[in-house]
Automatic annotation (TrEMBL):
InterPro entries, per database record: GLPGLI (IPR005901)
Signal peptide: 1-17
Annotated source species: Ferruginibacter yonginensis
Keywords for this protein: Signal
Keyword Signal part of the UniProt annotation: yes
Protein name: GLPGLI family protein
Amino acid sequence: MKLYILFTILISSFVFASNAQQQQFIDKAMVEYEVKTNIKKTMGNDSWAEMMKENLPTFKISYYQYTFANNQSIYKFNRWDEKSKLPEYMRRDDEANNWFFDFNKNKLITQKNIFGSTFNIEDTIPTINWVLTNESRNIAGFNCRKAVGKIFDSVYVFAFYTDEIMVSGGPCSINGLPGLIMGVTIPRLFTSFIATKVSINGVAFNDIKPTTAKKYYNNAFIKNTIFERTKDWWDGGDDKEEAQQQKNRFVWSLML
């Protein structure tokens, strides 16, 4: 009887350890993110914006999928929140955009809808300088640690990552932590990304590939194009500081 009990304990311990190890070292999966933006705050507070706000919901909510395997990943739109009633012009860019990472080659290939045109962009993976903190939280069943980074020279990013999932990526072009980024908040864009589920089985790993194109641009070209086409935007208003913030948010969102 004692031998049977000992054998049962050993088997249970082995199964528990195997499950724990499997969870700790996930190297391929699909992660769903809820992306939430307070669109009314992004619009400013001039008379035109206040008039537009009357016909819009407070939040723009969508769901994206981040699929990764073999040190590559793709992040792309999946669906809108059923309660989100947004005009078509607020939806089309999200539905067209995607981000493909090849971590082995330090390459990021994105497809973005900018000013109604599709641009395919190929460049190196952006570097973000992170500072790790002692704060932690649980996201989608995973223990996550907080880190603070900065993008576009002055925009702070607050992220929670888990080292139980072995890919140094996250939503959009946010990357560079020792594990998958499960939650991100960008206060100056009034936007948050939060992982809602992690799937290991039944994942379409064959979809991890970049969108092919005849011509690719780099980030410097895209940035210059955006600045050139928006140089006269938001001019003429009384609040110059607010106008500049509006322009900055627009550019940052496109470059993210």
